[in-house]
Structures are given as structure tokens and as C-alpha cells.
């Protein structure tokens, strides 16, 4: 196809589509006018106070009816959404393809975790060092004694004086 032919066909299609859109807009406008005539009659302004009060009561009654319908529809939608969610969960259970969500790692101290679990009323201090018993170090008498010559100290502690003397006697 030549480019002029393509251009001509394209312009024809656009003109047809434009005409269809205009007709559709006219139909929508006529539908809106017809709906307004049916549901919203023209307001005739009352001349007396009693007629005005009657008109207000009628309008309030219509508002109440519409609010009740809106509420009922909202409740039906909420109920349907809950049923849909429950059915989705059942389908997932039946399929067996439930994926466990990835949990975030949380850095929390033991004190903060206990405070979160037990509430702010309980202040628990998990300082383990404070709970340990204090042990006093016993100082040995031997350590306090002046060591003096280290060779004598070793000979005294060895307890093998008899053997040592045997070796010295043989030599």
C-alpha cells in the first residue's frame, strides 16, 4: 500500500471514531438528564414556613435512606472481601505452596526484649555480673613469707631430700 493510501485510510478511521465518540457523549448526556428528571424533581421553593419544614423533613428522610443503603453496601463489600481472603488462604493451604515470609533481624538487648515482653511496669535488669557471688581470695601464708634464695626454696619444696643425699653420698 502506498503511503497516501495509508494516510487516507487512517484519516477515515479517525473521522469514524470521532463521530462514534460524539454520539456516545450525546447518549451519556441524555441518560444523565433522564436520570436527573426521574430521581431529582425540580425544587419548588415553598412560600410558607410549614412547607419549608416539610421539604426539609423529606430531604432528611431521603438522605437517611441513601446513607442506610450505602452502609449496607459497604458491609456487603467488606464481608465479600473477608470471604475472598479466607478462600485465598484455603487455596494456598490446599496447594501447599505457602512461602514463609522472610523475617528481619532485629538487634535488641536482653533488657529491651524483657521490657517489651513484660511491659514498662517491670524493670528487669539482666546484669549477670551483679548476680555473681563475691569470693574473697584467701592469701596463703607461704606466699607472704619472704622467699629469699630461690634454690633453698626449691630444695625445701621438693621433699626428695633423702634421694638427693643418696646421690651425694655415692659421688
Automatic annotation (TrEMBL):
GO terms for molecular function: actin binding. One of its GO terms (biological process) is skeletal muscle contraction. Pfam families: Troponin (PF00992). Transmembrane segments: none annotated. GO terms for cellular component: troponin complex. InterPro entries: Troponin, Troponin_I, Troponin_sf. Keywords: Acetylation, Actin-binding, Muscle protein. Belongs to the troponin I family. Troponin I is the inhibitory subunit of troponin, the thin filament regulatory complex which confers calcium-sensitivity to striated muscle actomyosin ATPase activity. Binds to actin and tropomyosin. This is Troponin I, fast skeletal muscle.
Amino acid at each position: 500500500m502506498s503511503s497516501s493510501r495509508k494516510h487516507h485510510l487512517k484519516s477515515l478511521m479517525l473521522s469514524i471514531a470521532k463521530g462514534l465518540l460524539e454520539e456516545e457523549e450525546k447518549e451519556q448526556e441524555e441518560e444523565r438528564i433522564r436520570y436527573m428528571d426521574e430521581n431529582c424533581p425540580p425544587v419548588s421553593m415553598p412560600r410558607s414556613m410549614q412547607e419549608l419544614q416539610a421539604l426539609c423533613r423529606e430531604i432528611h428522610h431521603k438522605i437517611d435512606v441513601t446513607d442506610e443503603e450505602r452502609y449496607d453496601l459497604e458491609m456487603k463489600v467488606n464481608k465479600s472481601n473477608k470471604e475472598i481472603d479466607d478462600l485465598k488462604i484455603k487455596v494456598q493451604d490446599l496447594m501447599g505452596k505457602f512461602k514463609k515470609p522472610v523475617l528481619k533481624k532485629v538487634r535488641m538487648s536482653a533488657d529491651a526484649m524483657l521490657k517489651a515482653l513484660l511491659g514498662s511496669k517491670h524493670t528487669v535488669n539482666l546484669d549477670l555480673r551483679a548476680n555473681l557471688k563475691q569470693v574473697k581470695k584467701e592469701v596463703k601464708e607461704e606466699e607472704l613469707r619472704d622467699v629469699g634464695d630461690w634454690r633453698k626454696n626449691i630444695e625445701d619444696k621438693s621433699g626428695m631430700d633423702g634421694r638427693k643425699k643418696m646421690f651425694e653420698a655415692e659421688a
